[in-house]
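Notebook entry, structure prediction.
Reason for the run: the old model in the group folder had no record of what sequence produced it. Starting over properly, with the input documented here first.
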Amino acid sequence: MAVPRLVGLVDGPASITLVRHGESAGNLADADARSREAEELDLETRDADVELSDQGRDQAAVLARYLADVAEPDRPTLVLTSPYRRAADTASIAVAGSGIDVVVDERLRERDLGLFDGLTGHGIRARYADEAKRRERVGKFYYQPPSGESWADVVLRVRSLLADLRHGFEDARIWMFTHQAVIMSFRYVLEGLSEPDLLEIDRTSNIANASLTTYRRSDEGLELLDFADTSLVDAAAADVTHEAPVTGDAERARA
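New structure, fully documented this time:
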């Protein structure tokens, strides 16, 4: 059941489109580590500097072709991006030649997993058994990894960004290039979801790379139009990619 919303009502942008970054080297390393049941990813780059894979660049190019031909009423007037390289590069490729400025906003960065960064769920359980038990007790939404962020912390960032967009952007069509946990946090805030509802959506959904989640303003406020829509990539030569489903107390090591 939805709860009252503090944002996402009749004020703010005309539309918000949340774009998950293209497939990254981290996504590939995560899939490889899971297939080997390894404790950690074979990846030395810090999370903020993880690059797009070749497939990820192809996915971003699909978005670029769409934006080059899209009708003016659907053309973004403002593009924001996470500073993390995989998201910023997706945005840069997507808007190349369009004349649309890209604004970096650190509130769109990926959730910080702290000491768990680069570990698989197997690695977390093996190296931090007490923390794995604490996460199971506290729950995924409120659990904060050592030196990292909870989902609730990410929600605070999202609320701050939306508050900045409530005034002066009434007719703006905004695209935001970001990450899976951030997109789920937008759903929590804009739709007034409960904790159980959010976790159920997360459990049963995969937000594919280069997918679009779109809200459009109506008389009722910003309403969800599409969630994790892959139709642009589906219609192109690029493959749809996403992480494997996450079960138990595993964390997505890179997203």
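Summary: Confidence is low (pLDDT under 50) at residues 246-250.
The old model has been moved to the deprecated folder.
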